[in-house]
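Subject: Interface between my chains keeps coming out wrong

I've been trying for a while to get a sensible model of this assembly. When I model each chain on its own everything looks fine, but I need the whole thing in one frame so I can look at the contacts. Pasting all components below, labels as-is. Any help appreciated, I'm running out of ideas.
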Amino acid sequence: MDSSPAKVTSTRRGYWLSMAALVVAVPAALAAQTWGSIKDWRAQHLRQPVAATLGQPVDYAGASWTVTRFTRLAGSGGNAVVLAEFEAVAADPKALGAIPCEVRLADESGRAWQPTLFADPVLRQQYPEAEQRSLCGGVAFAAIEPGQPARMVASFSIPPAASSLTLSIALRSALPNYLSVGEPRT
Amino acid sequence: MMRVVRSVLALMFAAFVLYGMQHTRPLYSRITSPIAYSGGMNKRVEASAFALSLDSVRVARVLNTETFGKSKTYTSSGVWVVVEGEAEAKFETLGLTSGEWLSGSGVRYVLTDRVPATIEMMSGDVYQPGLPRRVLLMFEMPEDAVAGGTVVVARTKLLPLDDEIRIATNVSGKDIEPAITIRRNDEGPPWTVLPQR
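Reply #2:
Try treating it as a single job with all components included. I did that and got this:
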């Protein structure tokens, strides 16, 4: 076995170089392996609002979006009902319709409500035409020609005390950005 | 010689430690089991995502349903347990799709699927933050599984480390009614359990 000083030095150098390479390689492998999860987590939890106001068109996810109604009503069971109507004009409505869309309402304390499919009869009585609109997603864009507005609706059932409401519309392809519209002051 | 002995001892020690770790390792299902919040009847039990209180547990040999003018009778070789209460989401809209009756001997009974969907059971409803909603759970089980049972409710059975509320009922299993009827209401509370108590 060759145990000359030169050979020993070379072996030691190789050993420490390998150790140093591990320090770089292990975190790099971990980062590469989990990069997709980190991106998903960031898209879900670190969202960036694209602020808009009622009636003002805003470019988002490759379309021009306008929230046309954001109103609060007294519900039939002691709750409050929020009706939001909005439309999107896209150059390629079919492509936009293929992207999952999430609409929700949040208040200042961070509580979040999902749409309720016109569950409250008050909505059907006061806004019967709104019931004809589609929810955000593929159906709303199915029969729309490029440049035509796709009209959509969402209704929410919330406690009457909920305040400082914000409507958010998020398309999967545009995350972490989402469209954010505050409740108009009356 | 000492070096060889030391190496053998180190190997034996490592094997012993690995053997111990292998045999004391908790099951994956236990590591990822739900985080339980416990309470009793007529008390609001708060989990991190939702709250639940139960106020009535009734046991009957026959279950009748009345929906849209149609009546149906459900018999059983065991008994029917009908539980009522109130649930509320705390921060975001959610569903409570998992309801179980945990008997005193540890056997779990899931919600019955025999009753028509026109009777709104807990698992078919949506719960909104700040809007408490009445819940109805119905189970079918052997008579000896009733006494000392615990109702276990969760958003789903599939999410690891999610909330689970466990409410111990004070049912003795001796107070069994011949029959009870669940009537769907068109207005007001979504159902009524008859005869009323």
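Reply #3:
Confirming on my end. Helices of chain B lie at 2-24, 28-31.
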